[in-house]
Inverse folding.
């Protein structure tokens, strides 16, 4: 009788011990690939403070005009762990922190090298494959941490003004896509008549400026420099953030300053539907 009792208690104990031993392996095995919006992470204060007023960043492999590359490719890995005592436990929130850590690492490398810009920033997870986007980044989320790998180039950006070099303010700098002429209102996707009127008005705004469209017909326009120092000075970031905050569908930059940066491949199935659904009112600053 005693022997059978020992067997009956030892078996569950062994199963529990085995499960405990396997738990770390199972947790580490999860590797969820996510593509997330850059604006939600880059526009936050921690990144803007790191950039200051003297350093620019540019996402997407294309190097913007006026940038003199100072280095070969540089790399940064950002990691973040979920904090189960706060709300920062979902993958998207932890990924945002991981991206911010990676961007701050690139900023430190730029300052140490005498650069005032980090350009050509692309996702490069595990140094295996490039994910090139001006609006999204790639994050890999697990049970114990999330990881963002970035690849970039350090550069100098100068603008002649009254004989002095003026450093461009920190901004997302997507290259022109060639999709349409900036003044061709009829080519702007997803808009109804009111949306086209808003775009025509935006064309009269002074820079810096940005125009964002969403598949469900909403638009956001942003221009100038906000008086609140806690608000991003980048009009592209402000417009994208507003679009995401309102829950619009597939927010996309259409134009920045005097260039159309929209890529129709991001929402090809919607290009034949230029009219917004009834009741969708454009938004803006």
């Amino acid at each position: 009788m005693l022997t059978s009792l020992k067997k009956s208690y030892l078996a569950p104990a062994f199963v529990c011990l085995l499960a405990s031993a396997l738990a770390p392996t199972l947790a580490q095995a999860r590797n969820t690939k996510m593509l997330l919006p850059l604006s939600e992470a880059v526009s936050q204060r921690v990144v803007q403070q790191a950039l200051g007023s003297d350093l620019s960043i540019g996402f997407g492999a294309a190097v913007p005009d006026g940038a003199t590359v100072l280095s070969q490719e540089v790399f940064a890995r950002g990691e973040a762990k979920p904090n189960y005592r706060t709300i920062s436990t979902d993958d998207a929130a932890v990924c945002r922190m991981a991206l911010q850590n990676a961007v701050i690492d690139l900023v430190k490398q730029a300052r140490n090298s005498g650069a005032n810009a980090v350009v050509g920033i692309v996702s490069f997870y595990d140094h295996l494959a490039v994910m090139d986007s001006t609006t999204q980044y790639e994050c890999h989320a697990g049970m114990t941490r999330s990881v963002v790998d970035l690849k970039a180039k350090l550069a100098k950006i100068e603008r002649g003004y009254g004989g002095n070099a003026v450093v461009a303010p920190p901004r997302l700098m997507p290259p022109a896509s060639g999709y349409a002429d900036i003044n061709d209102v009829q080519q702007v996707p997803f808009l109804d008549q009111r949306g086209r009127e808003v775009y025509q008005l935006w064309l009269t705004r002074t820079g810096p400026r940005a125009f964002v469209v969403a598949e469900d017909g909403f638009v956001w326009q942003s221009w100038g420099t906000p008086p609140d120092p806690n608000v991003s000075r980048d009009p592209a970031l402000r417009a994208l953030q507003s679009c995401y905050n309102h829950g619009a569908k597939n927010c996309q930059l259409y134009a920045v300053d005097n260039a159309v940066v929209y890529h129709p491949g991001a929402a090809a199935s919607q290009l034949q539907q230029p009219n917004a659904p009834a009741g969708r009112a454009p938004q803006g600053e």
The helical segments are 2-29, 39-42, 45-51, 91-113, 193-202, 235-245.
